[in-house]
Specification:
single chain; alpha/beta; Rossmann fold; TIM Barrel; 4-stranded parallel β-sheet
Length: 463
């Protein structure tokens, strides 16, 4: 027997909800019940408990996505599950069609080596602080970056402190003495050895990352691989990713050539040469590079966060590796898995057309302003009319808030958010901060509709 769902809604959304459900032609049966409030977004669990007298034989109750309160307690009181639907009605088909297929992002294959650059100039305490931050955003290995011909007296203290704190550690230098010291101090990996410095691997237990003698010299890399295999030693191969216009395309070809010739060796890609040395948003670069890693079975990357524009590089790489792993496991494109890498744009930025907003505006009977966006621009409306513009400054003379500073401030904030969302192609929901995916460390901010509202601004509390 098909599941029977009870959809709870408000007066303004009831017609639209019914239309969407009819067009969905769902496999479940349903009842739509208007709970006696105007605005569905203002519904609370307590309100449902007070007002709902009949569950209409439902197996499950769906409340608006912005419904506040303890739904677990409400479910126990009613004796059946009560769950939140999507925040936008237009997302209802996707909610039912794809919510059950949500990818498990708890798994990944690629290890992230996060480099603490210029470590000789960084104190032990500061290195430890950075290491904990990198670990919190996804790093698996903390890489200690040395400087050429630079005195590094506290290298051993750094390594031993990190090891005591439970970190996996690598040392990053092209100078043999740095690598030897790091290896003897207990690092787990050494970046990087080539054919002429393989002797260091005989002196320490650390796993070496092998690079060509010169970037284009894959023959030297082949010889180094053969030597390490003969000794039955673990190693990782890095053919070196070069910056754009300085050999990038050729270096990608090198990775492919090495993988084709050595199908089972462990490989590393230093993604920082692209994210750091290209002035473009790093989320897209990380996504593409981790996609290449996924295709070529490259299971380690070296990431850096030196440039200000690359300040989320490790966090982005962490999410990108999880998305690519999920897509590969499911044999699907890396789409509709997680939106965290879409910082600037969204798949469906404008859920409502101007005609639908116009229809909603015609039903409003109170003075409180609603703000929405469509592909055509920014729209603000109340009982006195609907106003639209692509520049919010054009709206100010029509809003009559010159003498109400709090009201003007609130509308200014909301219209600014709406303009940004419209310009970029992002979702805008009144009283909620715009979402930026993993491009920010800020938590999502939501205005409490019931406890904080300048008088006369927007939706008021219903009871």
């Amino acid at each position: 027997m098909a599941e029977h769902l009870l959809f709870l809604t408000g007066k303004l959304a009831e017609k639209q909800l019914r239309n969407i459900l009819v067009k969905m032609q769902p496999e479940f049966t349903y009842t739509v019940h208007q709970l006696g409030i105007k605005v569905a977004a203002l519904m609370t669990a307590d309100m449902v408990a007070r007002r709902l007298q009949d569950t209409f034989g439902a197996d499950r109750i769906i409340v608006p996505g912005r419904c506040r309160g303890d739904l677990e307690a409400l479910s126990k009181d009613l004796g059946l599950p009560v769950v939140r639907g999507p925040e936008e009605l237009k997302d209802l088909p996707q909610y039912f069609g794809k919510a059950a297929q949500k990818a498990d992002l708890s798994h990944y294959k690629v290890k992230i080596f996060a480099e603490i650059v210029d470590a000789p100039n960084v104190s032990v305490d500061e290195v430890l602080k950075r290491a904990h931050y990198y670990k919190s955003v996804g790093a698996d290995v903390i890489d200690i970056g040395c400087l050429p011909s630079t005195y590094f007296p506290h290298m051993e203290d750094i390594i031993q402190t990190l090891k005591q704190e439970g970190f996996t550690v690598s040392i990053d230098s092209l100078e043999a003495n740095d690598l030897l010291r790091g290896g003897k101090a207990g690092v787990d990996y050494m970046l990087s050895l080539h054919e002429s410095t393989l002797w260091i691997a005989d002196e320490v237990a650390a796993t070496p990352i092998l690079i060509p003698e010169k970037h284009e010299d894959l023959a030297s890399l082949d010889r180094a691989i053969e030597i390490m295999q003969a000794k039955n030693r673990d190693f990782i191969v890095d053919p070196i990713l070069d910056p754009l216009h300085f050999g990038f395309t050729d270096s990608v070809v090198r990775y492919h050539a090495v993988r084709k010739k050595h199908p089972t060796v462990e490989m590393m890609m230093g993604v920082g040469n692209i994210t750091e040395l290209t002035h473009a948003d790093t989320a897209g670069m990380n996504t593409l590079l981790l996609g290449i890693c996924s295709e070529l079975n490259i299971n380690s990357i070296l990431a850096t966060q030196v440039s200000k524009h690359a300040c989320r590089a490790v966090k982005e790489a962490d999410l990108a590796r999880r998305i690519m792993y999920a897509a590969k496991q499911q044999d699907t494109l890396p789409k509709h898995i997680d939106a965290g890498l879409m910082a600037l744009h969204e798949v469906s930025p404008f859920p409502y057309s101007y005609e639908e907003i116009e229809d909603l505006a015609s039903q409003i009977k109170d003075p409180n302003y609603r703000v929405q966006i469509s592909a055509e621009g920014v729209h603000i409306f109340n009982r006195d009319g609907l106003h639209s513009a692509v520049d919010p400054f054009e709206l100010y003379p029509k809003l009559k808030v010159e003498t109400d500073g709090g009201h003007a401030f609130y509308l200014g904030v909301e219209l600014a958010r709406a303009e940004i969302a419209w310009q970029l192609g992002k979702r805008f929901t009144q009283d909620q901060a715009l979402t930026w995916g993993c491009a920010t460390d800020q938590l999502e901010q939501t205005v409490d509709l019931h406890n904080f509202k300048p008088v006369g601004t927007t939706l008021q509390k219903s009871s």
